[in-house]
Amino acid sequence: MRFFILPTLFFFFTSCYSPERNCTNFKTGTFEFEALIGTEVLKTTFNRKDSIEIDYFKGKADTSSIRWINDCEYIVKKLNPKNMAEQKAIHMKILTTDKNSYVFEYNIVGQNKKERGTAKKIN
Q: Where would I find the beta strands (DSSP E) of the chain?
């Protein structure tokens, strides 16, 4: 009997857990994102104002449009792409949030390969 009760209690308490998703807190602001590219950790800073995002990477600024699908998902598309790869839109999905950061998943629209990252709100 005890063998049955413990797993049932564990399942009951863990199945009720739902990660925090206060996505509207991250629609605007200034954020940082660090990524490992090769052997180097590179930082991107971006400023998002609902439908426009300006990225700062390696001293260069680039502007993208943002189309919100819902409070936690949006499509990013560069306004002035410099090559074919930059013409592709990116689907972003906020998975979890906390006080000043969020974990997100992203992929090129039409492709299945997804990556994850964490953005930190700095302003």
A: 28-37, 40-49, 52-57, 60-70, 73-78, 90-97, 101-108, 115-121
- Which among 29, 85, 72, 24 is positioned nearest to 53, based on CA atoms? 29
pTM here is 0.78
Q: One digit per residue, pLDDT tens: the chain, 123 residues?
A: 555 555 554 555 555 555 677 899 999 999 998 877 788 888 999 999 979 999 998 899 999 999 999 999 999 999 999 999 889 999 999 999 999 999 999 999 999 999 999 999 998
Q: Catalogue all structural domains in the chain, each as residue range(s) with its CATH number.
A: 20-121 (2.40.128.490)
